[in-house]
Design goal:
The UvrABC repair system catalyzes the recognition and processing of DNA lesions. UvrC both incises the 5' and 3' sides of the lesion. The N-terminal half is responsible for the 3' incision and the C-terminal half is responsible for the 5' incision. Pfam families: GIY-YIG, UvrC_RNaseH, UvrC_RNaseH_dom. Interacts with UvrB in an incision complex. It is found in: Cytoplasm. Helix 4 (73-87) packs across helix 11, helix 9 (207-222) packs antiparallel against helix 10 and helix 14 (434-451) packs parallel to helix 15 (466-479). Strands 13, 14, 15, 16, 17, 18, 19 and 20 form an eight-stranded mixed β-sheet that branches. Strands 4-10-9-8-11-12 form a six-stranded mixed β-sheet. A three-stranded antiparallel β-sheet has the order 2-1-3. The radius of gyration is 37 Å and the shape is flat. The protein contains 20 helices and 20 strands. The N and C termini lie far apart (106 Å). 28% of the residues are buried. It is an alpha+beta fold and 597 residues long. The chain folds into six domains: 5-87, GIY-YIG endonuclease, CATH 3.40.1440.10; 103-204, no CATH class; 206-248, no CATH class; 256-363, no CATH class; 385-533, UvrC, RNAse H endonuclease domain (Nucleotidyltransferase, domain 5); 549-595, DNA polymerase, domain 1 (Orthogonal Bundle), CATH 1.10.150.
């Protein structure tokens, strides 16, 4: 389609809420989006400069546009979600979840059976769920079985057939698991009162069942039926124990959906908790694969629509970590403190654990993908122009002002490259001057790399604040590398990241992988530097002491250290042991030095 025709289409779009669809030259749907104002949103694709490459490619491939106007924003969300699921356009978020979830069915029959199923049949039966695991379903069914005596047979218990004596009670009746409605030993009214109580338990409301059991126990006790009272007491304990395990928030928080999101460059993970009567009755995490640079807000809105639709949730209120647009039918709350905030934090923790498990699996199965993701994340977090595949970190060590040294550690693809680590003995600086020392080692390191035509890093990290960073920058300026290598300083106390010519530090999320790698680099540089510093100090100390012995030279000291390892062992050695290593004359000198008395 000619470009002019596309321009005409854009100009005629309505200023209404709805869904827009982009088609390519082959009339294939490549993207679906929703908007409060269709014309404004679509126009932005063609008027803005897009930093993200995939968005530019999407715009380039748009040949025609279609739109659907709807009444409300909520309708737009639902329609967008349905179209994405149906057509799976190339540039839309991918919803990675194709499971068939289990339900608990209360069968539509005279004496309803209760059983698990993965098929929802529209025959008038009630379905509770879907549940995110079969384990939850079995736990609930075991609880119900322990509390109420329900039939498990599939007989047609019509009134006429029971009166005709068509059925006989089975083993379940004799075991006390069923009250025998097949022989008319339990009335329909009594059976349905149990079903009503079970319905409430499946909704998360234990209050009515607890009250009912307490009344029954009291009646049995008053009638001196202590055995029956004890049975009811056991049921009460089962129910109270289950309630205690499931109630982890304020019981006043009822019929609420809670959502949170954790995302990186490629994936987003949205956790959903459903609350009823203070209990979490459902937890599920949805994985979304990003195709364009979708914001957390856009992803969360899409995920909430999908999850509520999938799990048939009609809750009128949702808790989320930040403000989102879901139309006027749902109340959106962003809790700031108390129990409500705690439950949002719990949801986020679930999303984070789910993401961590996924990343661990990827790390094992596909390490290259893991490294690529980390590099892309670091590039975005640190505002770099390229991925920091090669990072070098510098640290100074001069404990108590003696033996100043520096260390340079190297990470490649996010992992230590120990063969590339380097130690530096400070040569041009007198006394403990960290700034001058940093300037010297950075200059020496990159002068050598340039002379040997070795690859330069994409990122330099300086362990220190603004002063250390400024010193390192002087060396880069002297070598003509300013602007060619990204460089940042990390201050120890608050983990502040400083950039050249920027007085305001960057603070990364304390749990971010980027900060963890920077901290690992800094700690490794510190360890490596301290190790070298200790070696220099110990060599300096022993050399000074042995050199004080008249007639003992450098080769004698080396021979003694090879044999005895420490100065203390040399001092405690017997004369014949020393003679065996350095001869009689020198042995006497060393022995007499340590045994003057």
């Amino acid at each position: 389609m000619p470009k002019t025709a596309l321009d005409i289409q854009i100009k005629t779009l309505p200023h209404q809420p709805g869904v827009y669809q982009y088609f390519d030259a082959d009339d294939k749907l490549i993207y679906v989006g929703k908007a409060k104002d269709i014309k404004k949103r679509v126009s932005s694709y063609f008027t803005k400069h897009h930093d993200y490459g995939k968005t530019r490619v999407l715009v380039k491939n748009i040949a025609s546009i279609k739109h659907i106007v709807v009444e409300t924003e909520n309708d737009a969300l639902l329609l967008e979600n349905n179209l994405i699921k149906k057509y799976q356009p190339k540039y839309n978020v991918m919803l990675k979840d194709d499971k068939s979830y289990p339900w608990i069915c209360i069968k539509n029959e005279r004496f309803p059976r209760i059983f698990p199923t993965r098929r929802v049949i529209k025959d008038g039966s009630e379905y509770f769920g879907p549940y995110t695991s079969m384990k939850t379903v079995r736990t609930l069914l075991d609880l119900i079985k322990g509390l109420y005596q329900l039939r498990t047979c599939n007989y047609d218990l019509s009134e006429a057939k029971i009166e005709a004596g068509k059925y006989k009670v089975c083993l379940e009746y004799h075991l006390g698991n069923c009250k025998g409605p097949c022989e008319g030993l339990e009335t329909e009214e009594e059976y349905h009162s149990n079903i009503t109580a079970i319905r409430e338990i499946l909704k998360g409301n234990f209050k009515d069942s607890l009250q009912q059991f307490r009344k029954q126990m009291k009646r049995h006790a008053e009638a001196m039926q202590f055995e029956d009272a004890q049975k009811i007491k056991e049921k009460l304990e089962i129910l109270e124990n289950y309630q205690a395990k499931s109630t982890i928030v304020n019981p006043k928080i009822s019929n609420v959906d809670v959502f949170s999101i954790v995302s990186d460059e490629t994936y987003a993970f949205v956790n959903f908790l459903q609350l009823s009567y203070g209990s979490i009755i459902r937890s599920h995490t949805l994985e979304l694969k990003k195709k364009l640079q979708e914001s957390d807000k856009e992803l969360l809105e899409l995920a909430i629509t999908e999850i509520r639709q999938r799990f048939n949730s009609n809750s009128k209120e949702i808790y989320v970590p930040f403000k989102i647009d879901l139309g006027e039918e749902v109340k959106v709350t962003v809790p700031k403190l108390g129990d409500k905030k705690s439950i949002v934090d719990l949801s986020k923790r679930n999303a984070m654990y789910y993401r961590m498990d996924k990343l661990k699996q990827i790390k094992i199965v596909d390490p290259d993908r893991h490294a690529n993701r980390i590099m892309a994340q670091m590039k975005a977090d640190l505002r770099l122009s390229e991925e920091p595949r090669h990072i070098e970190c510098f640290d100074n060590s001069n404990i108590q002002g003696t033996n100043p040294v520096a260390a340079c550690v190297v990470f490649k693809n996010g992992k230590p490259s120990k063969k590339d680590y380097r130690h530096f003995n400070i040569k041009t600086v007198e006394g403990p001057d960290d700034f001058a020392s940093m300037e010297e080692v950075v200059y020496r390191r990159y002068k050598r790399l340039l002379e040997e035509d070795q690859p330069l890093p994409q990122l330099i990290i300086i362990d220190g604040g603004k002063g250390q960073l400024s010193s390192a920058l002087k060396s880069l300026d002297a070598l003509g590398l300013r602007g060619k290598i990204a460089i940042i300083g990390i201050a120890k106390r608050l983990e502040e990241l400083f950039y050249p010519d920027d007085p305001i530090p960057l603070y990364l999320d304390k749990k971010s992988e980027t900060l963890k790698i920077i901290q690992q680099l800094r700690n490794e540089a510190h360890r490596f530097g301290i190790e070298h510093h200790r070696n220099r100090r110990s060599k300096s100390a022993l050399t000074t002491e042995l050199e004080n012995i008249p007639g003992v030279g450098e080769q004698t000291i080396i021979d003694l250290m090879k044999r005895f390892k420490t100065v203390k062992r040399i001092a405690n050695a017997k004369l014949d042991e020393l003679e065996a290593v350095i001869g009689v004359a020198r042995a006497n000198k060393v022995y007499n030095y340590y045994h003057k008395e």
